[in-house]
Amino acid sequence: MTELFEPLTLRGTTIPNRVWMSPMCTYSAFSEGSEIGAPNDFHLAHYASRAAGGVGLAVVEATGVLPEGRISPYDLGLWDDSQIPAHRRLAAAIAESGALPGIQLAHAGRKASMERPWLGGGPIAEDEGGWPVAGPSAIAFPGYAEPAEMTLADIAAVVAAWAESARRALAAGYEVVEVHGAHGYLLHSFLSPLSNNRTDSYGGSLENRARIVLEVLDAVRSVWPEDKPVFLRISTTDWVAENPEDGRDAWTLADSIVLSRWASDHGADLIDASSGALVPAKIPHRDDYQTRNAAELKAASGTLVAAVGRIGDPAVAQELLASGSADAVFIGRALLRDASWANNAAAALGARGRFIRQYDYAV
């Protein structure tokens, strides 16, 4: 039995296998003649090729719920109904190529208004096309612009924006929606004491710092069908024991375990377990630097968990599932190198990938 290529049913939605394309920003949404934030031909080719290559689920990259929530001016967005048709075209291309289409909805918070990585990746000044950034507190990511501390009205508006973007994602034909709560972006920055020193109902205790995440899940669930799954991506740890400047605790795996239980109670069907990126940190170089946390999170929280991070060997991916360490794997860099990684993994493991099943030849 090859668990990696067994279907997984969440609510009323069946994903044909457990090899999933991880959401990875491409910073390619804005091109001549295209709608700002809308997918273009590049995205069709990029995602459809991985879908045809055998993944069971292709999750479209971080898509801004508000224009100021984009990481860069070149991010995808779903903050306006005018963006739905282009997303509908992308979701249909993924589905027609054999995978379920999913989308990650995001707000970059204090890490917004950035240049594309291959052009240096630094903050873009407002007079050069950037915009003001916001976060839970006026604490900047090192080297970035200081964010404005969000008011209660700002928080409520962001929560509402997530629901509206989820409504648009449904209209576009996506089958899975993932809330981005990782990598130092807005929701993660509320979770971690390193970036959140609020004294109101959104700061202080773990319950308060998690409040916005649970409100977003509730808001998304209010518009998302009961038979379709919602995922939550989190950073399981900041990779910082404590802040050397003021001694405050960071976000930890223990916190993630508690959050995962709460998230499940608020309608999250699976935790996508990543890590880091809230502050510069020393991250272990071992290949299982994230997957071991995913395994511990799954065991301790009782939630369904997808592992991600340096999973490039099909045998390793299969063992993560066979051992009960994860319920699925998100593949990132390996899929960028090989769009048919999933079908090739099926052949290597003696399972049946999409093209093996359709055309009966070994890849």
UniProtKB/TrEMBL annotation:
Keywords: Flavoprotein, FMN, NADP, Oxidoreductase
Statement: the UniProt record of this protein carries the keyword Ion transport: no
Database matches in InterPro entries: Aldolase_TIM, OxRdtase_FMN_N, YqjM-like
Signal peptide feature range: none
Zinc listed as a keyword: no
UniProt-recorded Gene Ontology molecular function terms: FMN binding; NADP binding; NADPH dehydrogenase activity
Cofactor or coenzyme needed: FMN
Residue ranges constituting the NADH:flavin oxidoreductase/NADH oxidase N-terminal domain according to the UniProt record: 3-346
Name assigned to this protein: 2,4-dienoyl-CoA reductase
